[in-house]
Amino acid sequence: MSLQKMKAILRHKDFEIYSRPYELNIVGLRSKSVLPNRFDDEIHVFYKVSTLNWQYHVFKATTDPGTFWLKQPMQPQGTAILAEGQYVGAYSLGLHQGKYAALVQSKPVSIIRDYNRDAVLDFNNGQKTKGVFGINIHRANAQGITKTVDRNSAGCQVFENIKDYDLFLKMCQKHRGLYGNRFTYSLIDFRAVRRQNLRYVLSGVGALGVVGLSYLAVTHQEKIKSIVSEVSDFFSDLVTQKQTNENQSQTNYSSTPSG
Question: Does residue 210 register a pLDDT over 50?
Answer without folding.
Answer: no
